[in-house]
Description:
- This protein is α/β, with parallel strands linked by helices and 170 residues long.
- It has one domain: Rossmann fold (3-Layer(aba) Sandwich), CATH 3.40.50.
- Helices cover 36% and strands 18% of the residues.
- It contains six helices and five strands.
- The chain has a five-stranded parallel β-sheet, sandwiched between helices.
- α2 (57-67) links the parallel β2 and β3.
- 31% of the residues are buried.
Amino acid sequence: MEPDIQHGAATTTAIYPGSFDPVTYGHLDIIERAVQHFDRLVVAVFDRPNRRLRFSGAQRLALMREATAHLTRVDVQQYHTLTVDYARAIGARVIVRGLRSPTDFAAEQPIAQHNRVMAPDIETFFLIASPHHAACSASIVREIAALGGDVAALVPPHVAAALRSAEYEP
Ligand code: ADP
């Protein structure tokens, strides 16, 4: 069925996938901006990234849920399949990603192109990072926190607390 553009009647769902290890203010900036353009934004926490993680899937999910609790049209879910398969399964036609730099672009371009081949019905929308958040990455946050530095400007307080705790339990 064609979406009812004139009256805006079609319900649009987008997904924002990532490993979010852990969620940062940079991720939250993308979420808060993206959700304004969709009826529903599913933040999809990838459960099986092929690299070492600071937090488990359950922990990353819980940290993201708490960080987005004030956003009524945002759902946080875990997934472990191809992103396009998960998008289709939940009826999302848009994948949202954030771009901080040309390095992000270089990494994101082939992913978006492969996704396009696998799922021509799903589009990837890129949001440019806000200048204030462009230097914020989960890996920098992990590194600063591991060395005892202050990450209060980069992550919400409950995430900073989890980073301080050796055995964070959601
Ligand atoms: P990945 O999916 O590669 O594991 P992350 O989970 O860290 O990456 O991030 C998910 C998405 O958020 C990616 O599109 C990433 O480029 C974007 N992102 C990460 N940090 C920021 C930031 N500070 N500002 C804008 N976008 C960001």
